[in-house]
Amino acid sequence: MTLASRSLVTIDDLSNGEIEALFSLTDEMSGSMKEQFGLCRGKVMASLFFEPSTRTRLSFETAMHRLGGSVISAVDTKATSLAKGESLADMARVVGSYADIIVIRHPWEGAAKVVADYAGVPVINAGDGGHQHPTQTLCDLYTIKKERQTIKGLKIALWGDLKYGRTVHSLIFALAKLEANILFCPTPGLEVPEHVIKKLTTEYGGELEKYEASAQTSEKGLSSLDAIYITPGSPHQLAMMPNVSIQVELKRGVDALYVTRPQKERFATAEEGQEVEERYSTVDKKLLKEKEFKRTLIMHPLPRVDELACELDADPRSMYFKQAALGVPIRMALISLLLGVKEISIPHEDSSPRTDYPLYKRGFGVKCPNPRCVSVQESEVKYIKPEFKIVNSKPLTLRCVYCEHGFEPKYVASSEWHEGTLAEKKYHSAQSHWARKIKPENLIIFDSESEAEAHGFKPSHYTPEHR
Ligand code: NCD
User: Fold this and answer.
1) Fewer Cβ in 10 A, N or C end of the chain?
2) Is residue 145 within 6 Å of ligand 1 at its C-beta?
3) Residue 416: what pLDDT?
């Protein structure tokens, strides 16, 4: 099977079977690095890093050099025509006409999807704002798999900034797909965003148990544990666990502790940064003396700041430098597959999470509420039409196709009525029973009453403010 011409924008772009096959190819390539030289001879990779990067950029570039290909790069929007007001789409079209594959890191959430939509060549997301970082997730999973032989049924604790950490967001969905249990241990104030939790619980089949942080755990150890995702896939002790016995279950051991730094560059205000800094705790030797960490893999996507003590570097449980080193063979395997110079056989086909939701796409009406979304940042350029998956009708819930933020819009109307089947153009509360009668293809969704009225609609009885 070939992955040629495909892009990797979110971790959902790869099925479990494809991830496994990619790991087999990585095994093969890391055992014979020198023999891979020449595989990508004559191919060009564009490396576009519009946010700071050491590991991701240099490991991608090393990977392409080791495959015998060439690299062109841009590292700062100020040095490109984006600074002159060029749209991402135009840049993507142009770079796609020079290079055979594009790797992009960008501060806007959904930017990699826009580039993939317009480039005409495979695009790899090397981090789009706080959204996702799928190749870091491949490095994380590959490291765990090498150490534990499987991901299924493991207990993986995520620690630190779970709100803005893009590596955490892609890792959550990957772990859920691969049927691991996830322990959420956020620094207070940096909990996993609600839209990530919603997607996790509605699409991956497991259950989420919430805890009052500290209430169920020892004062030390995983004291900030606030929720556990229990996979449906393994007949694991956790699944039968009443809340009270969590202490006991945790003492049986956590398989990996994934530590992250505070993503200061994404904090809304300087105050948020200051407050968080005070609450951020450090993973050190003392903490790792707790029984639950006896055999735990200590992981970190790096760079670290103060949240992971250097005294752990020589500890055999520490995996973070290994994670970074594995970035080269993983990315060599990925580039070769997307360029079609290698093929893979998929060990088994699996059921992927649901993606066939009806789409909502109009040139007016509702916009993505996430200010960091590419569809908001580039709305001036007009070529990005806001587009949403209708992931639920009761209550009406939309998910932006670019940044994946989910939200419940307030007002709706129908294009059938609008187009004259009914005499009057009325809009309704999105939560009214009328709203649910509108077929997805006829839905018109508004952010506000004033917007509905600006488009010639009047409030109906089903707009509560007008009852
Ligand atoms: C991560 C990133 O850029 O999201 N770094 C990386 O790519 N290894 C994590 C981070 O910056 O904290």
Assistant:
1) C
2) no
3) 82
